[in-house]
Amino acid sequence: MMTLCGSCRSLVLSLIVTVISIGTTCGSLSSWAKDVPSAESYIASYVGLVFRTYSDSLTRAFDLQHSVEDLLENPNDSTLQNAKNSWLVAREPYGKSEAFRFYGGPIDFYDSSSGFEGPEGRLNSWPLDEAYIDYVRGNPTAGIIGDISIPLTRDVLLGQNQVDDDRSVSTGYHAIEFLLWGQDLTGTTGGLRPVSDFVPGTTTNDRRRRYLDLVVAQLVDDLAFLVKEWTPGSDNYAGAFHSMPEGVALEKILTGLLTMSQFELASERMAVPLDSGDPEDEHSCFSDNTHNDFMYNAIGIENVYFGRYDNYSGVGISDLIKLVNPGLDDQMTAALMHTKASIEKIGAPFDVVLSTPYGSSDRENVETAIDALMAQAVLLKEIGMTLDLSVRITDGEEG
Prior knowledge:
Blueprint: H1 6-14, H2 19-25, H3 30-33, H4 39-73, H5 77-97, H6 120-123, H7 143-146, H8 154-160, H9 173-181, H10 203-229, H11 237-243, H12 246-276, H13 290-306, E1 308-309, E2 312-313, H14 317-324, H15 326-344, H16 350-354, H17 361-386
Antiparallel strand pairs: 1-2
Helix pairs in contact: 4-5, 4-10, 5-9, 5-13, 9-10, 12-13, 12-17, 13-15, 14-15, 15-17
């Protein structure tokens, strides 16, 4: 195993800088310097990866929008099921995109002086109080849909999002999910909202139809914003990211992976519902898609580490680390594989897992996945230290 001095690590980091400067500074590196990926190639690969993932998310959101239009034009069991299927398909690339969060990028940027914030809070907020949006068991007139004094416009719905409470979610994937599936009351299937809820002609149904149309349109616009901001070669965030010092860019990337692994996925999405046993705390509780959400998030982390997305293959963190510390790269690769294998063993639907007693094999499988993510996070911190970077868990709201 090759061990590099701190100054050499800095050179690898800072353009990994140019192969010439690395080779000149430390002769022992000359035998492999020609194979060192430049920082430019790594950052360009990351920008390309983000752009492709968000572009795929937008394409599938358009498909969802078309399916919803079909449902509203001709409400029947088939069009409702097609809309549900489109929602499920749309979740895959977006779930993978969450590895790009937590470092103040366009998805979750917040500027306290102007009040501008990225769209994450209106795209994917959860848990969701169903009664804030529509009827629930025991309250047939609940929610914004049931309150005819609330005008239904996009601005109004955006203004209602999490205005009083974090669970007062009015927009995004999970609001759409609830509108399509309804409450999950069975414990064995997702929600069973009847298609009659979308038949026009009553005030409540007409408001529900309009609400669904508005939030899907907002979802499409928010994803289009992210695609625009990450389009390579433009005067946008992608351009700014490309021009950052290499160390700053890598810190952001690794901070996103660490926070997603340890805080968001292991803690918020797995440990919290496991501890509470409350199906309301699971990520996609109406559709029973939570187990897939876990896997999409894990694959998203893996995609960034290896610099790939579907048939796109670029330069990843792995290419850098295997030259600095190949043993650490082997450990990280093994950890990513172990995380995926552990998540594959999590039972579905997840609310059934939550209902099992403490010490059950179903719960132990979730705990194993949590442990795998925590071990993965430890290695991400070690990768940061190896590259002399400040990598930490954040809430994402940074400039």
